[in-house]
Design brief:
This protein is α/β, with parallel strands linked by helices. Helices cover 38% and strands 20% of the residues.
């Protein structure tokens, strides 16, 4: 059994950490009593500070179990887990979890607590003052685009599913943890709400730079959100661990190809900005509809198809700066595409 002695120095370091931290899982195995095969077997991975890592795989492959061993909701049978070089198995589990944000699909808000009280749970456990907690609650509600004056004193039942999910994210961020664990947090929402929540979370992550492990069964979500994706098979065996662009361009085997499914080229286009393609001269005869230079090539292609024109003009801050055609989009999938950029990075 792991030593559960509280190491206050490590916890203090975690609490004070700005941005993200590195996480190392070294030969982690989880064997449940009475089961012949391990739930997770000899799993190793290094996550860099500020990375958003997606775990994707079939139901029962151990992705949630692997994630839960990081904050010791589930205790590993063997192996080591280190955050910023410190062994988390030497810490008190309850104290450790107060310094790691955790968001689940079912949200888990306390129904008889107000939204403000839900967000304040961990700061209260950490002994924050009332004034500091109130300030943090207001800050986080604004961060997730919920007006404190409107939502702070409501109860979870008075919010939509998407709003509740935002509160779940705010609660996980309450003590400003350097690590966040997210277990299919948007899976229970409808497609439109899920897409909005994904976009909002990516915007938020661009500002806060947490180290995040994100479990999903949705490969499209993994492509859209992840810095790197771990495609997992039975017992959390890693079939490929790489950037979305590299996985789409160079799947490691047939198993990974089965996750990508049809339309790999279109999925790759969604990862490439218009500025990565060769921009031609502005075309005065092009349709009035334009595409912004910060849009993806998938959006540019959609615009070309919808307008029926041979070219579409590209804008910067509303002004036309050039145009793009089908040939330029196709060329961007070649040597100048995402696989090459991922390798150079």
């Amino acid at each position: 059994m792991p030593d559960t002695t509280t190491n206050t120095g490590v916890l203090t370091s975690l609490a004070a950490q700005q941005g993200g931290v590195d996480i190392v899982l070294d030969h982690i195995t989880k064997q449940y009593p009475g089961q012949q095969t391990p739930a997770v077997e000899d799993f190793s991975m290094r996550v860099e500070p500020g990375e958003l890592i997606m775990f994707v795989g079939p139901s029962g492959c151990g992705k949630t179990t692997t994630m839960k061993m990081i904050n010791r909701i589930i205790e590993p049978t063997s192996g080591s887990i280190r955050i910023n070089g410190d062994d988390v198995l030497s810490l008190d589990g309850n104290e450790l979890r107060r310094h790691i944000g955790y968001v689940i699909q079912q949200i888990g808000l306390f129904p008889h607590f107000t939204i403000a009280e839900n967000i304040a749970i961990v700061p209260k456990l950490l002994g924050w003052s009332k004034a500091r907690i109130a300030e943090r609650v207001d800050e986080l509600l604004r961060t997730v685009q919920l007006d404190p004056g409107t939502f702070a004193h409501r109860y979870p039942r008075q919010l939509s599913g998407g709003q509740q999910q935002r509160v779940g994210v705010a609660r996980a961020l309450a003590a400003d943890p350097p690590v966040m664990l997210m277990d299919e947090p948007f899976g229970a929402t409808d497609p439109i709400t899920r897409e909005k929540l994904q976009a909002e979370f990516l915007r938020l992550q661009a500002d806060i730079g947490k180290t995040i492990i994100f479990v999903t069964h949705d490969f499209e979500e993994a492509i859209r959100m992840g810095d790197r994706i771990a495609v997992l098979s039975d017992r959390s065996q890693i079939e490929q661990f790489d950037t979305p662009a590299r996985i789409l361009a160079e799947p490691a085997n047939d198993y990974v190809r089965s996750f990508i499914g049809e339309g790999a080229a279109l999925k790759r286009l969604a990862l490439i900005p218009v500025t990565d393609a060769r921009i031609g001269s502005a075309d005065p005869s092009a349709p009035v509809v334009t595409v912004d230079e910060h849009a993806s090539l998938r959006e540019a292609l959609d615009t070309l198809v919808l307008t029926g024109g041979p070219r579409v003009n590209v804008t910067r801050a509303g002004a036309v700066v050039g145009s793009i055609d089908h040939a330029a989009i196709s060329a961007a999938l070649g040597s100048e595409g995402p696989a090459r950029r991922a390798e150079e990075a």
